């Protein structure tokens, strides 16, 4: 069973390949081993993202775990995945359109058994190591940006940094509402939103706020989309740059999947799935 469907992985790979820096595949003297093709490494990294398994489990006689880590670090240094995420978000905005009049922000805590630079004591998991992921989405749940931090960080201090990821979108609507749960209900949070020219829509503490009665449920659904990629649920990475690489990779997959799903009803193209994705 493939990690991702061909109609989903092919457009991601084509754009990813266009962003890769040019390199000599063979040594001019012919005295070194042939460089492992980027496509092979890319497909194995997709398997690691989806299945959450160790590099050694995916490695085989054609590509070692060391090669996977080394090529991953090369792509991180070149900023390929971060650029790809921006291009995917731009493509969705041009083709379908982002609904920025209402955005929602929420955090999700996942496990980090190996610790690391962005791991902290999880207050809801007996103090085990964990990572908190703060995500901002539009009105339809499209991920606009994410920030990772230790699990023991409170949600509200991460709000400002999370909203800062929206700068890549350029000019934002004047009347943009930010939907938050009661964990953000504080005067400082409301002041931060007003300073940014945003309208706070925060559930008040001590009052019932059913999830289905608010516009905040979309971010919960997006968190479940992220958690379908098991590398984020059980993150064994220790360096913050590598963790951000996997989060950006997950966002790219979600963006392209939603782009194909929404575009399926509106457009026709070569290789279009016969059924709605």
Helix % is 40-55%
The CATH superfamily of the domain at 99-238 appears as Ribonuclease H-like superfamily/Ribonuclease H
Order of helices and strands: HHHHHEEEEHEHEHHH
Low-confidence stretches: none
Largest sheet: 6 strands, mixed
The structural class is alpha/beta
Distance between the termini: 17 Å
Oligomer description: single chain
Please name the CATH architecture of the domain at 99-238. 2-Layer Sandwich
Apparent shape: globular
Write down the CATH topology of the domain at 99-238.
Answer: Nucleotidyltransferase, domain 5
Mean pLDDT: 91
How many helical elements? 10
Fill in the keyword field for this structure.
13% strand, 10 helices, six-stranded mixed beta sheet, 277 residues, alpha/beta
């Amino acid at each position: 069973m493939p990690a991702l469907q061909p109609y989903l992985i092919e457009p991601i790979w084509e754009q990813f390949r266009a962003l890769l820096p040019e390199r000599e595949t063979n040594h001019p003297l012919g005295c070194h081993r042939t460089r492992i093709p980027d496509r092979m490494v890319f497909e194995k990294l997709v398997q690691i993202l989806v299945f959450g398994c160790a590099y050694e489990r995916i490695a085989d006689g054609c590509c070692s775990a060391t090669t996977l880590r080394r090529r991953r670090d090369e792509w991180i240094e070149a900023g390929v995945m971060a650029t790809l995420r921006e291009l995917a978000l731009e493509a969705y905005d041009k083709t379908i359109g982002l609904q920025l009049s209402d955005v929602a922000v929420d955090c999700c805590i996942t496990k980090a058994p190996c610790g690391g630079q962005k791991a902290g004591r999880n207050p809801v998991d007996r103090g085990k190591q964990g990572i908190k992921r703060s995500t901002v989405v539009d009105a339809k749940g499209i991920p606009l940006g994410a920030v990772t931090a230790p699990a023991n960080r409170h949600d509200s201090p991460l709000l400002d940094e999370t909203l800062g990821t929206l700068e890549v979108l350029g000019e934002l609507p004047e009347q943009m509402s930010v939907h938050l749960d009661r964990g953000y209900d504080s005067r400082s949070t409301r002041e931060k939103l007003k300073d940014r020219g945003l309208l706070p829509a925060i559930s008040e503490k001590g009052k019932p706020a059913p999830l289905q009665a608010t516009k905040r449920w979309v971010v919960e659904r997006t968190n479940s989309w992220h958690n379908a990629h098991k590398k984020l649920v059980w993150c064994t990475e220790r360096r913050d740059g590598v963790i951000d690489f996997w989060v950006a990779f997950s966002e790219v997959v979600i963006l392209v999947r939603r782009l194909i799903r929404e575009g399926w009803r509106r457009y026709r193209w070569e290789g279009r799935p016969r059924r709605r994705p």
